[in-house]
Amino acid sequence: MEHLLVTGGCGFIGANLIRFLLERTPFEGRVVNVDKLTYAGNPESLADLAERFPRRYAFVQADIGDPAAMAEVFDGQGIDAVCHLAAESHVDRSIVAPGGFVQTNVVGTLNLLELARARRGRLVRFHHVSTDEVYGSLGETGRFMETTPYGPNSPYAASKAGADHLVRAYGHTYGLPVTITNCSNNYGPYQFPEKLIPLMILNALEGRPLPVYGRGANVRDWLFVEDHCRALWEVLTRGRVGETYNIGGDCERRNLEVVERICGLLDEMAPEARIGERRRLITFVVDRPGHDYRYAIDCTKLQRELGWRPAESFESGLRRTVRWYLEHPAWVARVRSGAYREWVARQYGAGAAPGGEGAA
Questions:
Q1: Is 348 a residue whose pLDDT tops 60?
Q2: Distance (Å, rounded) from C-alpha 4 to C-alpha 126?
Q3: Could you tell me which CATH number the domain at 3-187+225-247 has?
Q4: Considering 80, 88, 92, 132, which one is annotated as catalytic?
Q5: pLDDT, position 349
């Protein structure tokens, strides 16, 4: 693996992965970051890398759904491995406008697979990053395993399930060296503030309402993004070709519990007399259509085969995350565009803007 293509590298997980690869692994090759730079893609998250790693990092602005542009990347950059993260991922947006999710997540993935198939003689790995949402929803007990039947319940989840099936089929039919990972909810630095945790941090800092779907009873398994990056490195370099690995943080929390914990941390780390106790900002809003009740990941296969385990507890990871947002106000200010504020105002009411997804 000498020339690794990372799609969606200016997004949240992609930016953290590229930093992890260049700064904290023995990988000595080049990372080629391809990103379309939609509203959630922020090149500022990687702004220092071109100067620090001039021969090992390259950025190309391109759409994974554009065959000609991506063929130029594959051939011009000598790509021999792919880590595919580019995706539309905001469930609420998928409910409002599902077509773009199919175009990016299904058609875009198909285009990458076709390009890889045409060059499979030099390709050593095609890794596809997916989500636990493809499995559907759990009750009070049980966990998703790699063998759990798919049951996606949102347009976003359905589009990712379609991409998963295509990747698996190209491995089986054409012999592409594919691997797939399905991860639980990520959180950490550089996350675009339409997602639950950064939204709540930023709104709470400003004394704005903290919109929580329903009664906040939905349960998610939280995975610190740096732990996810370590897992991706292990699968990229040591995972068995043709296999799927689930990645979770073993940190199940109800959404309301997450929001209350954020409020407590901010009251401790950034007290503000005019705001007071931030729990009073919690506002319950009408639940999302088809809102899955609970996700939980069984990581036994990944732990057994590759020895990976999360290093961060939810408490330590959340504290690191809150601290990062407190220390990077300029980054936050620049990603919260006018278009983003308009979306939030439409979705959750003017009082919640700027902000985003009320519940995971």
A1: no
A2: 10
A3: 3.40.50.720
A4: 132
A5: 56
Contacts 24+ apart (CB under 8 A), 153-158: 153/290, 153/292, 154/91, 154/94, 154/95, 154/290, 154/292, 155/94, 155/95, 155/98, 155/101, 155/102, 156/88, 156/89, 156/90, 156/91, 156/93, 156/94, 156/98, 156/101, 156/105, 157/91, 157/131, 157/133
Which residues partner with 6 through β-bridges? 33, 83
Mean pLDDT computed over 255-261: 98
**What's the CA gap between 153 and 2, in Å, rounded?**
38
**Is pLDDT larger for residue 160 or for residue 359?**
160
Q: What is the pTM assigned to this prediction?
A: 0.92
**Whether residue 72 lies in the annotated active site:** no
**Strands 244-247 and 252-254, sheet pairing:** unpaired
| 156 noted as active-site residue | yes
Distance of CA 238 to the CA centre of its chain: 22
pLDDT of residue 11: 93
Which of 92, 133, 164, 250 is flagged as catalytic?
133
Instruction: Tell me the pLDDT tens digit for each residue of 262-281.
Output: 999 999 999 999 999 999 99
57, 135, 156, 170: the active-site residue: 156
Q: What is the dihedral of CA 254, 257, 262, 263, to 10 degrees?
A: 150
Tell me which CATH homologous superfamily contains domain 196-220+252-289+312-346: UDP-galactose 4-epimerase, domain 1 (3.90.25.10)
> Is 226 one of the catalytic residues?
no
Sequence spans of domains, the chain: 3-187+225-247, 196-220+252-289+312-346
